[in-house]
Amino acid sequence: MDTNIKFRNKLSNVAANPSSNERTPLLRTGDTKLTLSNEQHSSTDSLMFSESLNSLVESSPYRKISVGMSNLLSQKYESLDYDICENKLFLTEQSIAQSKLITENSKGCLPYLQCLNSITRLAIMRWFVICMIGILTASVAILITIAIEEISKYKFAYLKSRVDECKNNKCLFTAYYFWLIFSAVPVAFGSFLVVFVAPVAAGSGIPVIKCYLNGVKVPEVVRLKTLIVKAVGVVTSVVGGLAVGKEGPMIHCGAVIAAGISQGKSTTLKKNCKIFEEFREDHEKRDFVSAGAAAGVAAAFGAPVGGVLFSLEEGASFWNQSLTWRIFFCSMISYFTLNSVLSEYHGHPGQLSYPGLVNFGRFENLDYTFKELPIYMVMGVIGGLLGALYNHLNYMLTVFRMRYVKHPVARIVEAVMVSCVGVTIAYLSTFIHDCCPYESSDVKYPVQLDCENGQYSTFWSIWFQTPEACLRSLLHDSDDIWGVLTLVIFFFAYLVLGCWTYGLSISSGLFIPTLMIGAAWGRLFGVGVSKLTMYMGFSTDSLCYSKFAIVGAAAMLGGVIRMTISLTVILMEALGNITFGLPLMLSVMIAKWIGDIFNEGLYDCHIHLASVPFLEWEPPHFSYTIFATEIMSYPVVCLKCIEKVGFIEHILKTETHNGFPVVEIKEGSYDNIHTFGSYKGLILRWQLIVLLQHKVFLETKQEEELTLKDFRDSYPRHPTIQQIHISPHERNFTIDLTPFMNQSAYTISQRASLPRIFKLFRALGLRHLPVIDDNNSVVGIVTRKDIARFRARKHGKYGLEELQVSLG
Ligand code: ATP
């Protein structure tokens, strides 16, 4: 029988009987057909594996799936391929470049002429692209901040004038109506853009960039329209008065700019500049995206070192020294560009005193004594507890949203509702009589109302400013400005609003609201400590509420997002104070440890709720007894070295897989039902489509004409198989896949354990890993989803949990 037909028969058996789970041998090790490595572990051993595994694995992958479960993996996310495809075309390109270099050297070119050799040219191009990413990221940040400042200026000045007109409180409600309009309209517009134009622009963007750097292709994450919606959306959200910051989205903006610039073309604008073609590969793009994310942090917080550490801590699975240099350079350029332009804009040209979007201001005296450290540690504990509570509430809200707020209009209405509730809470709080003297603060829009002359209402001034300005007041204001009642109301209002806001269909950052909540309870904590020390008769000279506000803010942020190294450095750079580093480190670390006892960081929580096949840093515990044979998929859809066009087309149309092992099948050897031929290489779906598109059929002898450029041109959005026309006549032709397949793609032995496979995927950014037996025959295939399915239970009972795969 024709081997292709045998393949098809195997596949149709599985398709006809999906409940047999034959595609997923895991937990079916008792089934002798699927226990492949008979030499290694007999069926009795396998049964033991299965038993021990069953006690560890908590859920079956085929249980009923309901929306909003965090133990799902979505089939819709594809993987990026960070492994270089070493096919014959690639090797030819390399050897041509090499021989060119040798000829130049033998001609005795002067050193400066050698600058033109391909290696140096590539290096110069890389540095140039990095520089452009830094400049453009800073430019977007500048546009965002100027837009917010100018629109807010107009909004608050107008509202203040309306409130001032109503000194006798009789017409305050008109100011309230205007306030509602000024808030709801921009929020509705921003939400409309997110819902209908670029849903991936919702939120801070940090989770999706984390996923991208981890190797997951989140649809539309680095598109131009996403950048536009993100930038416009963050302006509307901040201007609309929501409890959001503009800093988190900058990281996403930087990443999109990096992905766009480095490719030298825009698919959205249908423009190909025919430059940087060498960078049109996943792994090259990933390096630039890491740099873009770092540039975003540098621009947002004025923290170039924090940016590098952020990319290191949160993203990169792959890291080397030269990449670190480039990322650092990108952050520096971004920091410098933003600083010089904003200093000019604020009327201090050449002073370089506006390093980031968020400006915490200068702190003169942040000295601390040894005695204070335990207090800061206690604050770390509180930060961890509050952070865990915040994440839990937000998790429940997000699940509720995923289940019940699905309609696009409902999502916009919810965003508008949150902005109206925020305005109403703010408006109602202003009726609390809390006045303070003008001299003690530098508020921009002080409202006197029923306060005595020389005083202004604290609450009006809190709400009549951007969140960044409010955070600055919390960190800097003297101890008498924020009364206890004001702080308590502010803390609860922001806790509720911040928690409700994160996850709405708007572009929003998490850093600033979380820092504000932390600064508010930090000040309250300071009040408590000073009362206690006074009561105990100790000196309260060294206690100042600013320090408590800073530590509270750091602890709260650490408790919510659970970043440690980068967060501490970001805060140290943003505060412009290195001496206060130890209290920050202590509080952030302790907050993370405490928070981790209860749940995971908010970004990770959202990643899991989105069912992304995300690979953690480490393989799950207790997984050394799980072997390749138990996690691989079987049977494998393979292609022969010289394959029929009709069969390739059929496979691409009927199968959704993105990678196919290329095998050699010796006549008569195919009867072994466990193997699929001798392994020769791996070819990807999009490569096959390019081959079909260019009709490189053996019979028409066109394969020599195809170069790597043809493959790069179709990157990253390759045509689908439905867009390729193959005539019935052409279906009988054949293609030689050997020059195009990755002939040295990584494979793994069937005896390998899950942690070994996991480390290969994580460290090398793999997409497919064929499993081979001792005779180099393909017996199965493992992809990211196969290993991402296993997760160590983080809470409750220890052990492994197995995630369910959903189609949505
Ligand atoms: P990705 O979507 O990550 O780019 P993919 O589409 O090739 O890769 P997945 O969607 O991860 O593969 O695979 C879904 C399931 O199909 C996995 O269990 C995987 O092991 C299996 N699979 C992948 N490629 C093949 C193949 N060529 N033959 C048989 N099964 C495969």
TrEMBL record:
Q: Which UniProt keywords apply?
A: CBS domain, Chloride, Ion transport, Membrane, Repeat, Transmembrane, Transmembrane helix, Transport
Tell me which Gene3D superfamilies the record gives: CBS-domain (3.10.580.10), Clc chloride channel (1.10.3080.10)
Q: Name one GO molecular function term.
A: chloride channel activity
What are the subcellular locations of this protein? Membrane
Bilayer topology: Multi-pass membrane protein
Q: What region holds the CBS domain?
A: 741-797
Q: GO cellular component terms? A: lysosomal membrane
Residues annotated as transmembrane: 127-148, 177-206, 288-311, 373-391, 412-432, 481-503, 510-528, 548-571, 578-595
One Pfam family of this chain: CBS
PANTHER family (alphabetical): CHLORIDE CHANNEL PROTEIN CLC FAMILY MEMBER, H(+)_CL(-) EXCHANGE TRANSPORTER 7
> Member of which family?
Belongs to the chloride channel (TC 2.A.49) family.
Name of this protein? Chloride channel protein
Q: What is the lineage of its organism?
A: Eukaryota, Metazoa, Ecdysozoa, Arthropoda, Chelicerata
